[in-house]
């Protein structure tokens, strides 16, 4: 434990076959993740249950996306789904405690003998699994809604890969922080893409609109979920290009991510969104989200029992 951070949560983490304290986990500097950002990651939300257990939400979908991200950068998946599930459950058991959490998974191409851009032959991927504590947005912040700012999306055109090369996203998150905003909503060529670490949704004339899946955005695990929730709530949904003018004129704007669930944006670039309060489509989706969690946790409990 770092003596300067004695009060900081020091979870037991998995690194390349070993379990130990985060503060003691080390990787060699020639790891391709460190040198090139050559790797992918996942963030799986965990919810504390009444009995104290923490359960993952939509784990199958997260593992499927991890497999897709690895395939897109040509790293062989080091585990099958059962292997990943076993690691995640061990991370949960090894870090038992109160409150919601998330599991962070990172896989890099591994450690090379020397620095060189092209893939080195015969190296083994680096695998890291960590549980972190998380606080989902409070009821008070949900009731008020959040502030967002916009900026030009200057990232590469493989945003569909959940890459650890996050410099563009980091700069956008910092832009939000410097504007006292929760998120930066990005636009590319006058069209909505996504947040620095979230998908973005607008409501226009009662229809929920989301930017098209494809290389310009990461398809959040909540993308498909929100489609399902909209159908359940009887809200028309269209996956299509959303213009900057539509974003600015929207009745509602909201973001979704593992750590925000679905969160209303009530101020955009200093102007009120719609009536400046969280809207009815947000409220219906948020309620449906909570029901989806309850259903999935009931199913997990019945499978376990
Ligand atoms: N980010 N788009 C980007 C660029 C993201 O980084 C994320 C999630 C999403 C939403 O994906 P999901 O619904 O699967 O969380 C969209 C995670 C939470 C992160 O980087 O911490």
Automatic annotation (TrEMBL):
<keyword id="KW-0032">Aminotransferase</keyword>
<dbReference type="GO" id="GO:0008652">
    <property type="term" value="P:amino acid biosynthetic process"/>
</dbReference>
<dbReference type="InterPro" id="IPR043132">
    <property type="entry name" value="BCAT-like_C"/>
</dbReference>
<dbReference type="GO" id="GO:0046394">
    <property type="term" value="P:carboxylic acid biosynthetic process"/>
</dbReference>
<keyword id="KW-0808">Transferase</keyword>
<comment type="similarity">
    <text>Belongs to the class-IV pyridoxal-phosphate-dependent aminotransferase family.</text>
</comment>
<dbReference type="GO" id="GO:0008483">
    <property type="term" value="F:transaminase activity"/>
</dbReference>
<protein>
    <submittedName>
        <fullName>Cytochrome C550</fullName>
    </submittedName>
</protein>
<dbReference type="InterPro" id="IPR036038">
    <property type="entry name" value="Aminotransferase-like"/>
</dbReference>
<dbReference type="InterPro" id="IPR050571">
    <property type="entry name" value="Class-IV_PLP-Dep_Aminotrnsfr"/>
</dbReference>
<dbReference type="InterPro" id="IPR043131">
    <property type="entry name" value="BCAT-like_N"/>
</dbReference>
<dbReference type="GO" id="GO:0005829">
    <property type="term" value="C:cytosol"/>
</dbReference>
<dbReference type="InterPro" id="IPR001544">
    <property type="entry name" value="Aminotrans_IV"/>
</dbReference>
<dbReference type="Pfam" id="PF01063">
    <property type="entry name" value="Aminotran_4"/>
</dbReference>
<keyword id="KW-0663">Pyridoxal phosphate</keyword>
């Amino acid at each position: 434990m770092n003596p300067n951070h004695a009060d900081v949560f020091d979870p037991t983490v998995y690194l390349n076959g070993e379990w130990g304290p985060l503060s003691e986990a080390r990787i060699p500097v020639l790891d391709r993740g460190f040198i090139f950002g050559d790797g992918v990651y996942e963030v799986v939300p965990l919810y504390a249950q009444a009995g104290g257990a923490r359960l993952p939400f939509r784990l199958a979908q997260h593992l499927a996306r991890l497999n897709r991200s690895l395939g897109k950068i040509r790293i062989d998946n080091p585990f099958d789904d059962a292997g990943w599930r076993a690691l995640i459950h061990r991370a949960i058991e090894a870090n038992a405690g109160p409150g919601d959490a998330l599991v962070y998974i990172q896989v890099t191409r591994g450690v090379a003998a020397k620095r060189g851009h092209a893939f080195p032959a015969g190296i083994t991927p680096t695998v890291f699994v960590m549980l972190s504590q998380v606080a989902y947005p409070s009821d008070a912040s949900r009731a008020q809604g959040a502030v967002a700012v916009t900026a030009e999306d200057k990232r590469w055109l493989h945003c569909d890969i959940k890459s650890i090369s996050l410099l563009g996203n980091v700069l956008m998150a910092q832009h939000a922080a410097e504007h006292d905003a929760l998120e930066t909503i990005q636009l590319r060529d006058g069209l909505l893409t996504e947040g620095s670490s979230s998908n973005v949704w607008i409501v226009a004339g009662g229809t929920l609109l989301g930017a098209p899946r494809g290389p310009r955005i990461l398809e959040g695990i909540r993308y498909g979920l929100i489609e399902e929730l909209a159908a359940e709530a009887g809200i028309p949904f269209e996956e299509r290009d959303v213009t900057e003018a539509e974003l600015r004129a929207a009745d509602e704007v909201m973001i979704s991510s593992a750590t925000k669930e679905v969160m209303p944006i009530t101020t955009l670039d200093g102007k009120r969104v719609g009536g400046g309060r969280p809207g009815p489509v947000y409220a219906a989706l948020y309620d449906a989200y909570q029901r989806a969690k309850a259903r999935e946790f009931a199913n997990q409990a019945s499978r376990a029992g």
